[in-house]
Amino acid sequence: MSMHVDVFESRGAAERAVAAEIAALVRRRPDAVLGLATGNTPTGVYAELVRLHREDGLDLSRVRTFNLDEYCGIAPRDPRTFRAWMEQVFFGPAGIALANTHFPDGVEHGRALHLEELPRHVEAFERAIQAVGGIDLQLLGIGRNGHVGFNEPGSTRASRTRRVELHAWTREDAAKSFGGLEHVPTHAITMGVATILEARALRVLAFGAAKRALVARTLASEPDPAWPASYLRAHADARLVVDRDASV
Ligand code: F6R
Prior knowledge:
Helices cover about 35% and strands about 20% of the residues. A seven-stranded parallel sheet has the order 1-12-11-8-2-3-5, covered by helices on one side. It has a three-stranded antiparallel sheet with strand order 4-10-9, with helices on one face. It starts with a strand and ends in a 5-residue tail after the last strand.
């Protein structure tokens, strides 16, 4: 079970290659279903897709999107939500119809759901993925603790979309954008490992020297709940896309 690794000379070259693959998919199938990630890693891919939209006529208006995760406990329109970030960085500038975008955010009709309503909500998120025929291509990053989405260590291969408690390192890594650790949510909702593995293609991005050890462990580890990224190796069309600094 080995994962393909694509090593690029630079981060920019890697980002252009991934964006070109997504653009080709969308040109072939204008209503393609994209699985999206937030964080630092995919920003250049989004920027390149926006450039292709503006300069090359790439029409993303019919694309359907499903984001991996969203924090719990912050207001639906808060600028720190992943949805707000995606709208600002990608959906708006790329001309993606907001009605076609989905987040496991525990929000329905502008209202944050109560805890007991979440099981219904996460099941609806899974059903929405099924209803559009599944995710064509899922973008992923790897967290410092091996998480994918917010599937923190301990997550099982069979896990589905659900509310999770965030790992200490995940909260630390988010502290800056929340103006202090005490403001970082303790919980989030994440697409499950099994849900992610059902996407037809996985593109796992890792850039910079800080990711090298994470890449090495992902490639070396047997499927292991202690390192959730290890589950991705079992996928038939998973590629790890790295720059020189992150390659092992
Ligand atoms: C983001 C997500 C996370 C990040 C991971 C890496 O939606 O689900 O798993 O991909 O934490 O984050 P960065 O890219 O900021 O290093």
